[in-house]
Amino acid sequence: MTAGGAAWEQHSVVRVVPPVKPRKLAKVPFVELADGRLQGVVSSGSDISRVYVSSITAGTHGLNCSTNNNRPCGGLRGAACKHLQALVDEAVLQYGLDRVARYLRVEVADGDDLMSCLRGSRETAPAAVVFSRFLRHLAYLELPGTTAPIPELHWFPAMGEVR
Amino acid sequence: MLGVQVAELLVESPPGVDEALDLVTGFDDALEGGFGRLGEQRAAALAAFAAAMGATPLGPALAEAAEKVAAGSTAGEHLSALAGGRAALLGSVHDAELGRLDTALGRTRDSWQEPTPTTEAEADRATNLLAGCRSWLHELAITGWRGVDHDLVSAADQTLEALLAEPTLRRLAVLLDGLVAELRASCPVATMERLPVRRWADLWTRAMLLAQPADDRSGGGETVSGRLLILGVEVHEHGTAVQMQVHGVLEPAGGGDARLVRTSVAAAKVDTIVGPAVWRLLNDHPVLLKALAEHRSLEVTDVPLLGSGDLVWHDDQADAGDPADPFATARIRLAGALAPAVPPLDRHPVRICEPVLVEGYTTDGGTFDLDGDTLAVDTGRLPACGPLTPELVAASTACIGLIRWDAGRWTLQPLAVQATVKRTAVEAHNGDWAQGVTDPKAVKAEARTGDAVAVLRERAGRLLRK
Ligand SMILES: [Zn+2]
User: I need a labelling partner for B49 at 20 to 30 A (CA). Which of B74, B164, B179, B240 fits?
Assistant: First the structure.
């Protein structure tokens, strides 16, 4: 047995992706930090089959919001629309403020609201790509389960989370 | 598990293990920087790795691979050979450590029977998919972890999507999906302070092996009937997959040796389905969930038992039987049960997970002290979908757990505990919430966030089939 334990780098099982906190999904069913953006899908308050695709680019903080049919969001003028606000709020719940701020590369002082620290303006973003990533996300729930053992999951033990 | 057994594990490593791990470290270091630009030092480490394996059947292929990679003319076959060599080295570490554990526990293990190869040809679709996977894994190896960026990660998306749709390739799909998610979350990797180099090289290696064209890997097996007595359940989980792996003792119908077996049920999920909600994804297995939640035995009829000791679960061929206390099973049935063989491909230290009963210890929550010998407890591995907490472990007097090995260290992963809380005897098992949460505090927490599975299924129903 190695005295004192080996370095973190030499472990087969370590947590790499920080745990995601449970949150209500009804309003914002999908949020992710990917492709250099905070992006996600926000359910429309009025039309149950319509959703908004909203994103904020890391670094530039460019804002984008449109319907899944690619119609620009009427609420996004100069200031962020309510969908972007909801996206940010839910991302902070899911990932924690630190992780979202670090990803977007924004300084948020103690007690400040992340949204108010963003200085970006409207910018086009590939809403169709984000929407298809959401559909792909949903498609996981349609995959059949399996009872054939998956030994590879020994590398992925459930590690609990903040209770 | 007794103090003297723990003491046997805590003596120094079996001969050769430390040397093997050093060679693996050299390999992993080369993969971190990328096989595309090794540099002298890393090329030397790779050559040493190949030389150490010189006397094995892989020797010549590895020598050639190390040479070609160093010369900058890497082909797919070279990377396959290197992955094979790394897997063989860690396989030998697995064998040495599992052998030591079996000796300490006095556990008898079945020997591996090579299954008769199936002649069934792989579908073209699968062949193409595997080739697609290999080509992405090659690029990854040439680039090295340090060079991984969004584009390289996204390049796996299409292959992954197709893989997930192919049930026969689920093992590879689940593995790659887990690796891709970690790389995505770490992008750009060059800016990371420290890299999980052993882990990512492990995942790359296993993916390379699973992406080779091969026959059926399930390990043959037999059909069995009998009574399954549950010891506990381990939860495996990443963003898009969850697997409940039940450990138990099978008493074959009509007599015969009791067997240590596992049975697994898995489902695809998304990262926002966490905590007790994951059980809801496994509702197709009501008999198993009932047995877990109510601590009952299971009667199984004509179900496949693979050579790996995996009982392939068929809920419709099982009945929940009488109440059966897992602690009684562990006390009475565990010691005499025959442990299963490990399939060649699965030989990696991460796969060591022997169920044991530990009692008569004192604990501060971090270690169990048995007559002066201490066993570390891995309280980081308590799943959020069950009632076990670090506090319960600290208050425990008996524990059913899995003995694990990682980076030279043995730990106990609790599956169930008996504890004394406020002078009352309590019990908690990972599977207690299989049919729904029973703890009032956890019920409240669940109510606050609502039913994630239902919300997403509604969204899927409305948006996916438009
Ligand atoms: Zn909007």
Answer: B179
Rg (CA), chain B: 23
Calculate how far, in angstroms, residue A55's C-alpha sits from the geometric centre of ligand 1. Answer: 10
Give the pTM.
Answer: 0.95
- A148 in a domain, yes or no? no
B215 lies within 8 A of chain A by CB: no
What does the pLDDT look like over B133-191, one tens digit per residue? 999 999 999 999 999 998 999 999 999 999 999 999 999 999 999 999 999 999 889 98
B55 contacts chain A (CB < 8 A): no
Q: How is residue A92 written in tokens? A: 């902070």
- Strands B318-323 and B310-311, by their bridges, are unpaired
Q: With an 8 Å Cβ cutoff, are B459 and A138 in contact?
A: yes
| Per-residue b or e along B243-279, where b marks 16 or more CB atoms closer than 10 Å to that residue's CB | bbbbbbbbbeeeeeebbbbbbbbbbbbbbbbbbbbbb
A157, B450: Cβ pair inside 8 Å? no
Q: Six-digit token pair at B306?
A: 């693979």
Whether the CB-CB separation of A40 and A130 falls below 8 Å is answered with: yes
Domain with A37 in it: 14-130
Q: Tell me how many domains chain A contains.
A: 1
Evaluate whether residue A43 is within a structural domain. yes
CA dist., res. B424 & res. B426, Å (int): 6
Flag whether the ipTM exceeds 0.90.
Answer: yes
Q: Is residue A53 part of a domain?
A: yes
- pLDDT at residue number A3: 41
Q: Is residue A37 part of a domain?
A: yes
